[in-house]
Amino acid sequence: MTIPATALVFDSLPGDGTLGPGLQAHTAAMRSRVLKYLSYIPLILLWSAIMGSSWLLGKHNPITRIRLGLNRADLLPWTNEKTPRVYIYSDTDKIILPKSVEEHVAEGRAKGLSVTTEQFKGTGHVNHMKQDPTRYWDIVSRAWTEALKVQTYLK
Is the pLDDT reported for residue 155 higher than 60? Predict the structure, then answer.
């Protein structure tokens, strides 16, 4: 049985679960400062309840669980440590901070995963393809080409 060719493209993720970027993500479309700041109240309460209950129960919070899961070699039944993973992110993303992506990349590399990164300059959250579609699709194409090589190797 041939393992299907697979490449994982992480565009502007993962976050780290900190409050500031989370508030930014949930209120980015709001134009009114008053509504934005008022909406912070329930969001902070919800974030505090989720993080606090995770801590009290001695479990990882949901964002940490997602981060850990994304760095599993067997993320999908047909993926392994050779599956190409590319992280596309920006130096100016205020929702998913570059530091969060770079830490996740380092964790993946430490686990022996096949990881590459592409940092865009000055793009907003998930706006890399809009700014430079040629570069963006070239990155995806290279990841797919690598996936086809890995598939051939695993036959």
Answer: no
